[in-house]
Amino acid sequence: MAYGLAVGGLLIALVGIPAMVRQDWTSIGAPAWIILVYAIVGPVYLAYMLWNWAISRRGIPRTVVYAFLVPVWAEGSPSWPCTSRSTRSRSWAPCWS
C-alpha cells in the first residue's frame, strides 16, 4: 500500500507541477489560505490526536464504534443547511435507492 501511495503521489505531483508554476499565488486572498490551513490542520492533526487520545483512554474496541458514526455525523452535520441538499433526500439510504 505504501508503494502505491508513493507512486500515485509522485505521478499526481508531476502532473500538477505545470499548473503550480503558472498559478498566480499573489491573487489568492487571506481567507483562502486560512481555509486551506484549517482544512489541513483540522482533519489531519487534530482528529488524529483526538483519536489516539481516545484509544489510549478507552482502548480500541470501545472507540472503533465511533468510527462507524462518521458517515452519520457527516450527513447530519451543521454543513447541510449551507447546501441545496435536503435531509429528506435519498442520500440517507444510498444503498437502497
Question: Mind explaining what this structure looks like?
Answer:
The chain has 97 residues and is mostly helical. It has a domain at 29-79. The protein is 67% helix and 0% strand. It has 4 helices and no strands. Helix 2 (30-58) packs antiparallel against helix 3 (60-67).
Keywords:
97 residues; single chain; mainly alpha; 67% helix
Summarize the structure.
The chain is mostly helical and about 100 residues long. It has a domain of about 50 residues.
Number of strands: 0
Give the topology string: H per helix, E per strand.
HHHH
Please bin the fraction of helical residues. 55-70%
Report, as a whole number of angstroms, the end-to-end distance: 33 Å
* Structural class computed from helices and strand pairing: mainly alpha
Computed CA radius of gyration, to the nearest angstrom: 19 Å
Helix count, DSSP H or I runs of 4 or more residues: 4
Into which percentage range does the β-strand content fall? under 5%
| Overall average pLDDT | 80
Low-confidence regions: 92-97
The shape is: extended
Describe the secondary-structure layout.
Elements: H1 2-22, H2 30-58, H3 60-67, H4 70-76
Helix pairs in contact: 2-3
